[in-house]
Amino acid sequence: MKAHSLHRRNSHIGIQSSSSLHRRAFTLIEVMVVVIVLSILAAIVAPKLFGNVDKAKWNTSKFKAATLTSALQSFEMDCRQLKSSDTMRELLWDGPSDVADGSWSGPYIKNEDALEDAWGNEFILEVPGTKNVDYDVVSYGGDSEPGGEKWDADIRQ
Question: What is the CATH number of the domain that holds 84?
Fold first, then answer.
């Protein structure tokens, strides 16, 4: 009877018996099962998730290249044709030094980040172009190297 009242009094002040502690803890096997299940789920989900990230970066870069192409067309209408020595930063953001005063209506892009693809590399202006007659706006894709396949393929607008 004393032991029962002592257990009751101790549980009232926050002290618990070893049997109640044992019931509330996870066993090592239970923890291992949870870790294994989470590992299997991660192995299934991760490739799909990362595949979509690469696709999203490639599509974002393609869209940004098309936007830069449009901005370059606006520059050409305002100022002059593009030259092989031109850079997109100079034409669209900084303003070239060789155009008539007042003809440059830039910047032609909202911010300097528009000059970079989704991998952080600056788009390249190729004059004359290989896809288009006048010029191409180029990103070398995920690998930042010419050529490549799938998400590493070059983007040309």
Answer: 3.30.700.10
pLDDT digits over 93-114, tens only?
Answer: 999 988 887 899 989 999 999 9
Residue found under tokens 């952080």:
120
Element spanning 156, H or E: strand 155-156
Is 0.85 surpassed by the pTM of this model?
no
Residues 6+ apart with CB under 8 A from 55: 151
Structure-block tokens of residue 47:
């490739």
* Domain enclosing residue 139, as ranges: 58-156
Q: For residue 119, what are its two tokens?
A: 């991998």
C-alpha 88/C-alpha 69 separation (Å) is 10
In-domain check, residue 38: no
